Amino acid sequence: MSVSIEIHSDEDVHPLLHKETSPPHYGGIQHVTPIETFQWNLPSIQGIQLCVYKITHTQHKPFLSFLLEKNRFTEEFELPTLPLFSAGSITSAVKYSLVNLSSKFKLSNYSAFEQHVQVIGATEIGGWVTIFIDVTGVKDNDGRYFDLQIPQAANARLIFGLLDEIVNTRRIFDVPVAEETADFFETYAAEYGTLYHAGADGDSDVPVEHPIAGYISKDNETKLQFTSIFGETAASSTDIQSIVGPYFYFTTYGFAQKYKSQCPSQSLIGAFCPEGVVRFALFLGKTWYTDYDSLLTATATSRIDDPVDPTAWTEEYDSVQISDFNHEAGHVKYVVKTYDQQCPIHWTR
Fold it and tell me: Is 183 exposed, middle or buried (0-12, 13-18, 19+ CB in 10 A)?
């Protein structure tokens, strides 16, 4: 049973990104053994997996995401693995893993990849050796960092997943995350799934908030491309969907896709037929949890001389999570207060 993890260079910089003056550090650095001193007993090893991560720096907070690969038999996302025959020694396993990653990323310049990738170290848990690799500084063949908005099909075999997706929802798009991968990060979230920054005393480490994934649909190519680069715009105060004010509204992948699956081949005039879906990392901060009926009831019973202010929540909270939106069971809306609480990860059709 899943235990919830609490969600509390530079010319190429993304419009929603900025360069950190004092970058946070990955918690795993303190818990792994450097490759140079790592010792293993090969006959006792069950397998080798790769924990490949990147740090994305946003105007709000930095966040981690982890490379997952779709298993060709189970069709679940899991940490990439290496065949044991490639592992005569830990150094040869690392070399093989880098060549393997470069091939998976379809990079044309291996020497450039090797120059920017960082092998942090390794650890052995339960007979599995995990090699930790930081690809934050690696660029693709078009010179883009991997944490930029790269178009990606919903059925992609490689994807960078958020800790919330891996541990809490255990799904990315509509693809499940393998139980072994989810359990690994659930058990070792503090050690291997979290960023830290220095506390006020300069000595203690304070964990950085984990974002959740949110989605929105766009009904034409222009809106899709614009949103995937610049993010979502605030809802209009006159929009009947902006039930808690003119802020930034997102939902789950299933409901972002819902209208798309219902679109006829020839759209009716005025019908909303999404061109694609944009996936975001959302920083919720302090969240007000409510449901659609409660919001409607509060509005309906308010007095003319003392009307309900739908934006009052912003005085105490950073976000709202609305369940059963539009009276649809399971339809969740995430509303964030500020533009900087969102970061588009990539988009799909």
Answer: middle
CA 26 vs CA 95, 106, 109, 121: distances in Å:
22, 26, 27, 12
Residue 213 φ/ψ, nearest 5 degrees: -95, 135
Residue 167's closest CA among 258, 300, 64, 254?
64
**Residue 30: φ, ψ to 5°:** -80, -10
Chain mean position to CA 32:
23
Dist. CA 190–CA 5, nearest whole Å: 10
Please report the sign of the dihedral spanned by the C-alpha atoms of residue 221, residue 225, residue 231, residue 233. negative
Same structural domain, 155 and 286: no
Amino acid at 47: G
Please write the tens of the pLDDT for every residue from 17-42.
444 445 688 888 889 999 999 988 77
Give the predicted TM-score (pTM) of the model.
Answer: 0.84
Whole-angstrom CA distances from 302 to 10, 200, 296, 306, 309 are: 51, 44, 10, 7, 10
Q: Are residues 260 and 307 in the same domain?
A: yes
| Type of residue found at 78 | E
Domain ends where: 154, 188, 207? 207
